[in-house]
Amino acid sequence: MKIPLSFWEDSFFNEIFDLAVVGAGFVGLSAALEYKRSLPQAKVIILEKGIVGQGASTKNAGFSCFGSVGELEDDALTNPIDSVVETVKRRWEGLGILRANIPDTEMDYIETGGWEVFQDKDEYEAAALSIEKWNNLLRPIIGKGVFQVQAIDKMNFQPMSIYNPYEGQLNPMKAIQYLYRKAISEGIIILKGIDVDTWSKKNDVFEVLDRDSHTFCSKKILVATNGFTGRLLSDLDVKPARNQVLVTKPIHELQIRGNYHYKKGYIYFRHVDNRLLLGGARFISDKENTSSYGQTSEIQEYLSNLLKERILIDQSYDIDQWWSGILGVGNAKGPIVKEIERGLFVAVRLGGMGVAIGMEVGQKSAQQILNSK
Ligand SMILES: Cc1cc2nc3c(=O)[nH]c(=O)nc-3n(C[C@H](O)[C@H](O)[C@H](O)COP(=O)(O)OP(=O)(O)OC[C@H]3O[C@@H](n4cnc5c(N)ncnc54)[C@H](O)[C@@H]3O)c2cc1C
Asked: Backbone phi, then psi, for 95, in 5-degree steps?
């Protein structure tokens, strides 16, 4: 039920904003900040349906990474090698932008390194053979060789893994909270609990309507809703993909430290203090093409078995918590950043690397909006 507005509230809702951003994840917050910094007098509002955060930005695994050999090889099967290298460049530079905007201490950023592990010997040997190729391709970007073979023990995978010393970890909730504080301190209005439903345009001004019948007027709109975009713009090539995640209770003398990638990056695990976080495996089921939160016994069983049989072998532990998050994916890899009609912009489809590229995508989108008529 819509509660009648006061005179003051009504005046607020009747204001015409210069930019209304739908979605307060990494992309929406970064775009709003970049726009406001370039045009300090602009009136910018962010409309977010969650009360804390409902998107991938606060439900992800907190890896600061840019691709494992297995993932890059897999991408190179369907994409020109130049574009795969370009993607790594974008992620690497994106992580630089993230860390330039959010102090490491504010998001508990730590450099941990990352390991790609393999179950299958042939798969490991094929990946190991391509290390030199990828090191040569990435040296101009990273400045040095990235990947090297390293032994791993204590887990039930191939005894050798592929190590990348330049990976790190962060607390994504803290990162987003920092961006919220920044945005508010720079004069951006953030309204939570606003589930945008539709919009219409009259005299060059959009009237945005939420599910509780509030209206907001804005000259421009940026849709930064990632995996939830289909409900607002069904023609775009962006679909939801759910990822389920578990975290254990604290484990006495947990030996595993750092980031781990498995199955071409579709499965990932890391330590969080003295707990173990494990997630992914959406490839085992077609029920994960959804924007509904929740768990399925299929994925839970698969991840639980993996944890027991390959990761925390000979160790006692309890699973503390399960959750899920929604990615935005599509037939093509890489984000969609464009104006789809005059004044209406999108920056969506961040895939599984939005921690790395989200800030850059938001900034790029803001520049596009600033340069538009
Ligand atoms: C489980 C999981 C693990 C991941 N792990 C990593 C990782 O370790 N490293 C990495 O780089 N990336 C990771 N990712 C990907 C990364 O989290 C995302 O790519 C990134 O957060 C996307 O940011 P975004 O701002 O585009 O979208 P989101 O963070 O999804 O933000 C979109 C926002 O729009 C809001 N919204 C949607 N519809 C509406 C509406 N109608 N009205 C108002 N608001 C709306 C949502 O509530 C949401 O807050 C992971 C993702 C998941 C799900």
From this structure: -65, -35
